[in-house]
Amino acid sequence: MRLINRKPSRVAAFALGMAPFLAAIIAYAVASHYRRLDNPADKLLPSLPDMAAAFGRMAFTPDRRSGDLLLWVDTLDSLERLAAGMGVAVVLALSLGILIGFIPHARASLAPFIATFSLIPPITILPILFIIFGLGEVSKVMLIVIGTAPVMIRSVAQSVMEIPRELIIKAETLGASVWQMMVRVVLPQILPKLITAMRLGLVPAWIFLISAEAIASTSGLGYRIFLVRRYLAMDVILPYVVWITLLAFILDRLLLMASRRAFPWYHMHGESL
Amino acid sequence: MSDQPKVSVQNVAKIYDGTIVLERLNLDIEAGALCTIVGASGCGKSTFLRMLLSQETPSRGQILIDGEVLPSEPTPDRGIVFQRYSVFPHLTVEENLILSAEFDAAPFTGRLRGSARARARDDIAETLERIGLAQARSRYPAQLSGGMQQRLAIAQALLKKPKILLLDEPFGALDPGIRADMQALLTELWRELSMTIFMVTHDIHEAFKLGTRVLVFDKIRHDPAAPERWGATITYDLPLDRPGVQTYPDAKALFALKNTTRGDAPDA
To answer: What residues form DSSP beta bridges with B233?
Structure first.
């Protein structure tokens, strides 16, 4: 049988999926082992048990100075910022995206501005945000909003414009007002695509979150890894990176599951990543 | 009303960027006609239907319905069934059918709740039976066959009780057997509702089988050096002899919303 027609069984698919992870861990363990043979105090590639111990300390031993369980405090603070930023971005994406995609006058007025605005590298605005909003939470949330909203707005507007014209005309012949078409035809049809836009938007959102925390913060996952960098504490940094990746992965899967559950009609054709 | 044509097309032309697509269209259609429109690809028959729908406006001339100039945008007095994308993919069969009642009754949310919704569902129960989708009422369009989707689209358009029904190759994507069933259903509904129907088709047999009047669109003059100079027009207008249009009161009641959803909705 040709290769394109051979499909792996469930077990084989799982094993194949796990193989690269396993290979990476083994490669790391081997490299770490040989470095520590040369120098038992090597900090660059700490052993897996060392990293597990450091991670356990961050998660379960109260910090000597503050008495906090640092991992959970960092995680909570970062997720709050991420949620606030994504929340504002979603509200902007829905309101402006539907206006731009659905109403020609709004499109003429807003589309060129949003397109231009989305080309500004968001990190260049960070100093401006720090000057205007200070070093507090607002500027970090704003950075996430500025980094994700323009792309999400354009993505939503595009989805609205891709709704077949026939459906809009049909709604008009059924007596719908513009507002009714927005809430009963346009919004429900683009919600699954908004979730896709959110899943894509989470990638830059994490980047801007970590950047903002690295530059000016006293808590958060980004703050922690940049803080312990001073002590070459790879045994903390590496588990934190894995932890951040795991959080990002879980958020992505949760959004996908929510979409499958809430919009079954959208997922009836074919498999999606 | 009796001597006034239902639809009157007066010297209509459609021009796109200097290319004349349609010109010199003059036509009076009597109420209750089932007018089929045939012609080669690109002869402007769909353009004509879109002008009847106000999806496009005539470059010259005017179209009247019941003696009044068409509004400049699609309105509920003209129902439409397209070849594809005629039903809402995010709504189940039942939700597709009660949607127009919801638009009527709830200007702000466009949504009926509780007892008003239950009444709207009762109102379309007979229609569901009639189009053979009672078993499929809670399925999404993606779970229906092409024929079922078009039956749903036709019922959805008819529930709004339009003055005229426009069909743009409604059965073009269906298998021949299914198409024959759909033609029979359409003929039945048309007889029962004594409605004026325009139907674009590329199937000339279908045009003669269903129509009381067949319009053939074609170019009457052709200039090889400047093909855009001459547009298509109606080259044949064939009234077919048919038994008179009969109406059955019980059938009319079937598609008449019982007018209970209006007025007692939560935010009406």
So the answer is: B218
